[in-house]
Amino acid sequence: MSTASPSNAEILDPPRRCPDLDVRDLEQRTRLMRIITRLIAVSDLGNREIARRAGLPMQKISDLLAGRLEQLTLDELQALRSTIDHELTPP
């Protein structure tokens, strides 16, 4: 058993387990996920059509609706939002 205690630097800045999940990125993706989920609910488009128009596999829409945010990138979420916004915007 080690008696060494963690340094102050280790306590204040613990190592990241998922370095690709930056807090700001996660917050942005969470906000977009909520917006997109609401837009999907009021859209006349089906999930398959939304996925097709956004150029994403249907599984990404399923992941989004199931709240599996880690499966979607910020770019994918932005593509989805612009696809649905374009559909809902009156001509």
Automatic annotation (TrEMBL):
Pfam families assigned to the protein according to its UniProt record, in alphabetical order: HTH_37
InterPro entries, alphabetized: HigA2-like_HTH (IPR039554), Lambda_DNA-bd_dom_sf (IPR010982)
Matching Gene3D superfamilies: lambda repressor-like DNA-binding domains
SUPFAM superfamilies hit by this protein: lambda repressor-like DNA-binding domains
Domain HigA2-like helix-turn-helix: 24-80
Entry protein name: HigA2-like helix-turn-helix domain-containing protein
Organism annotation: Halomonas halophila
